[in-house]
Specification:
The chain has strands at residues 2-9, 14-17, 21-25, 32-36, 42-45, 57-59, 62-67, 74-81, 91-95. By secondary structure, the chain is mainly β.
Length: 96
């Protein structure tokens, strides 16, 4: 599983991730797990993607979203959003 830490900076109202080009593989049946201790966030895949947006859940002060495994190689662009913060646009690179 590829783990991505999401950070919401309340001072600058920006979102960051510790890996903006996550690598996963079709053959490895890799999933991506985003987690954040700063607050609620949403993962939204860009138009044209066949992937459903993962649901974010929050328990014990940690919010998480998960998707995968992936079935076709390529690049999957998505947005990380949170109310009151500037949207971030990283990507998932899917290898064979």
């Amino acid at each position: 599983m590829a783990n991505v830490k999401v950070t919401l900076d309340s001072a600058t109202k920006t979102i960051s991730v510790d890996d903006s080009h996550v690598r996963v593989s079709v053959s490895g049946k890799t999933k991506v797990l985003w987690s954040c201790q700063d607050g609620d966030f949403k993962i939204k895949f860009k138009p044209g993607s066949n992937w459903p947006n993962p649901v974010t859940t929050g328990t014990g002060g940690v919010w998480k979203a998960e998707c995968g495994p992936f079935t076709a190689p390529g690049t999957l662009e998505y947005a990380v959003e949170s109310t009151g913060y500037k949207t971030l646009d990283p990507e998932i690179i899917i290898d064979r």
